[in-house]
Design goal:
It is built from 14 helices and no strands. With about 325 residues, it is an all-alpha fold.
């Protein structure tokens, strides 16, 4: 199996796992654990796993300034995002939540335009317009879902979760290229778990899943979330990014709402209706347009052609010197 194929399989697997996490988390939140305790368990177990893995690889020294940036990023990307994620699923369905979260690349683009002064291309304008259309369809038609207790409030929390993760990506943009992925992940999980520790250490033993009411199925769901989603999902992403482009990986992220929606409907957490696939098409098409950058591709081709011309020139000069030496 080629390295590139391994990269594609790793990214696809990670996004399928993340997609499954949405309806599975919904089942846990509805019956067995509160959103805050669920979030704390994920962060604490993730910190233990990633620091254990980090002990097996060469240690990187992180500056105090970068640790502060990672801590701030951890708050937005892990504490706020995961807490809003779990809380939103109390009020809305996995289908609506996953569609809103699919807007994250659009929100990152808009924040980059505002704060990082990125250039607005035609593709980006079209992508934003399509995704906003999909989001508007979700909001306008999702107010009275029979499967949700307060769908509009849940959709609002979903937007805040997507916004928080977008802020995390902007805040950690520079440090993420300075250090190995395991370094960023282990510190992010550690700081995030420490932030929730004072609030959840006493509440954790009181969760329903730790009482006699718990079933084998509830434990299996929790193990899946703590190990497969938290650990395996976060490990597969950087593994895949070693061998494929980030733009390709961002397109594979569109598997998440598809997987989440199909599984949620099969589990009876939502019902199929005409506006959901239409909204999904608009949102996903918008993300693809935003992710696609023909200018970057053209620059890459020009660079490759320039390198080929230089190599041919070097070969020609080398051949000329060899011929002159032979004649003399």
């Amino acid at each position: 199996m080629s390295k590139q194929l391994q990269g594609h399989l790793a990214i696809i697997s990670a996004n399928i796992i993340f997609g499954l996490s949405i309806p599975i988390t919904k089942k846990l939140i509805d019956h067995w654990v509160t959103p805050s305790s669920y979030t704390f368990m994920r962060l604490a177990v993730g910190a233990i796993i990633f620091w254990s893995i980090g002990a097996l690889v060469k240690k990187e020294k992180v500056s105090k300034r970068d640790l502060l940036i990672i801590a701030v990023g951890g708050f937005f990307g892990f504490v706020a995002t995961q807490l809003l994620f779990a809380t939103a699923l109390q009020y809305t369905t996995p289908v609506y939540f996953s569609l809103i979260m699919a807007l994250t690349p659009i929100l990152v683009l808009l924040m980059s335009l505002l704060f990082l002064k990125e250039i607005f291309t035609k593709n980006k304008i079209l992508g934003v317009a399509l995704s906003i259309g999909g989001a508007a369809l979700i909001i306008l038609t999702g107010g009275s879902s029979a499967m949700a207790s307060n769908n509009k409030f849940g959709i609002m929390l979903s937007f805040l979760a997507a916004l928080s993760y977008g802020i995390y990506m902007i805040v950690t943009k520079d440090v993420s290229v300075k250090y190995k992925p395991i370094t960023i992940i282990k510190w992010s999980f550690l700081f995030s778990a420490m932030m929730l520790f004072p609030f959840e250490i006493l509440a954790l033993p009181k969760q329903t899943i730790f009482t006699a009411e718990a079933t084998l199925n509830s434990y299996l769901l929790l193990i899946f979330c703590l190990v497969f989603i938290t650990a395996l999902g976060f490990l597969l992403m950087p593994m895949g990014l070693k061998y494929i482009k980030a733009t390709t990986a961002s397109i594979y992220m569109n598997f998440q709402p598809i997987v989440a929606s199909v599984v949620a409907i099969l589990l009876g957490q939502d019902v199929f209706s005409w506006e959901k696939p239409m909204a999904a098409v608009l949102v996903i098409a918008g993300v693809i347009f935003v992710s696609y950058n023909p200018d970057r591709k053209n620059k890459s081709k020009k660079s490759q052609n320039y390198i080929r011309k230089l190599q041919k020139k070097k070969d020609y000069l080398r051949q000329g010197r060899t011929t002159s030496a032979a004649n003399s």
